[in-house]
Amino acid sequence: MTDDTQALAQGLSRRDPDLLDHLIELYQHRLYRYLLFLTGNPALAEDLFQETWIRVLERGHQYNAKSKFESWLFAIARNLVIDVSRRKKMPSLEDLGDKDSNQPFDPPDEHSISALQLLVSRENQQAVQLSLLKIPAYYREVLLLRFHEEMALEEIAAMMSTPVSTVKSRLYRGLAALKSALPEGAV
Amino acid sequence: MTENLHIRAQKFFAQSLVEGLPHADQSWLDQHLHECADCAREIASTHELLHALRTVPVSVPRDLAARTQLRVRLRAQESAQTSQGNFLLWVITGFSWFVGVLSAPLVWRGFAWVGNYLHVPKLAVEMGFVLWWAVPALFAVAAVLHQKGFNISPSRGPN
Questions:
Q1: CB under 8 Å to A143, separation ≥6 — which residues?
Q2: Residue A138 and residue A115: Cα distance in Å, rounded?
Q3: What is the SS3 assignment for B123?
Q4: Is A136 exposed, middle or buried (0-12, 13-18, 19+ CB in 10 A)?
Q5: Per-residue pLDDT at B46
Q6: How far apart are CA A163 and CA A175, in angstroms?
Q7: What number of CA atoms fall less than 13 Å from residue A114's CA on the CB side?
Q8: In angstroms, rounded to a whole number, what is the distance separating the alpha carbons of residues B128 and A111?
């Protein structure tokens, strides 16, 4: 346990407002991207972003500094996504809790896609982004954590409370699913 | 070159991306890619795919961080006030319990004397004494539930 994470844990425990401001600023891009990849819905991602930080405030005393802060943060965000998907009965997000389900992800509505489309500029990136929406959310999640966040397999497994073998198999299947979801000639 | 070698190359490549590859297998893969244009092309395309995935630009909505910071600060203030209120409630409850325990024998004697003087049945005196004890506690529970935002109205349905 480093001094930094220890200090972070102490600050979270006493609900230090300046520390929280700093953390929100620091992790805004990574957390929002994670939530957007998971939900495919910018408005929902925004709501969950705020709700995640409220949880960080309220449960800061539970951060024990044994894990990386970002893993703990993403785990909170992930649980919120699962809660919302259960409440709203969104099948694609429900799949996050279902280890071996192979149900494909259907984008919720045209508006969500077009909103996401605005976020991408290059042709390949657009193709990848749209293909991501076609694969199950639990594949999107591990692909993002591994190849975008560059998290270790063990960190991802700890964050998702699943065995490393499950993470590996989702990564293999996710890569294959993403490649097959790409339109002909893209990338 | 047999089909199995291509499949093996694809498998090794995926493994190198996900969990890393032992040195010997990596050498075999490099050698194969050197000789097989199809596999090299396929792997280059996967590299491009991953590059595109890594560089997908996602812009955070304007002011999202500032709005979140404000909301978090407001919630922190709200919680601080609530916990201050809770502390006061605990102090008052503790004090009233302490006074209640200390004064119980005296009050019991008072109830007995009044009951005897007014010829009230013993059961009514005992019930009065129990109420004297229970009512403040019930008020305290109601106050705590109210503060925690419990809705005890029976008119609302499950949805």
A1: A132, A171, A174, A175, A178, B53
A2: 21
A3: helix
A4: buried
A5: 87
A6: 19
A7: 3
A8: 67
- Tell me which residues of chain A have a pLDDT lower than 70: 1-2, 89-124, 184-187
Tell me the per-residue pLDDT of A130-145, one tens digit each, with 9 for 90 and over: 888 888 988 999 999 9
CA distance linking residue B62 with residue A29, whole number of Å: 12
pLDDT at B65: 95
DSSP A60: G
Residue indicated by tokens 């409370």: A161
Residues of A within 8 A of B61 (CB-CB) are: 32, 42, 46
A120 touches chain B (CB under 8 A): yes
Q: Give the closest-approach CA distance of A57 to chain B in angstroms.
A: 7
Look up residue A171 and give its two tokens. Answer: 């990564």
What is the pTM for the complete model shown? 0.69
Contact of A91 with A81, CB cutoff 8 Å: no
- Out of A20, A33, A175, name the one closest to residue B14 (CB): A175
pLDDT digits (tens, 9 = 90+) for B98-155: 888 888 888 888 888 988 899 888 888 888 888 887 777 777 777 777 766 654 443 3
Contact A135, A181 (CB under 8 A): yes
Q: How far is the C-alpha of B109 from the C-alpha of B40, rounded, in Å?
A: 98
CB contact under 8 A, B45 and A187: yes
Are residues B61 and A42, on separate chains, in Cβ contact within 8 Å? yes
Instruction: Give the DSSP letter string of A67-122.
Output: S-HHHHHHHHHHHHHHHHHHHTT-HHHHGGG-TT--PPPPPS-HHHHHHHHTT--S
- The C-alpha angle with vertex A181 and arms to A179 and A187, in degrees rounded to 5, equals 55
Decide if B103 contacts A86 (C-beta within 8 A).
Answer: no
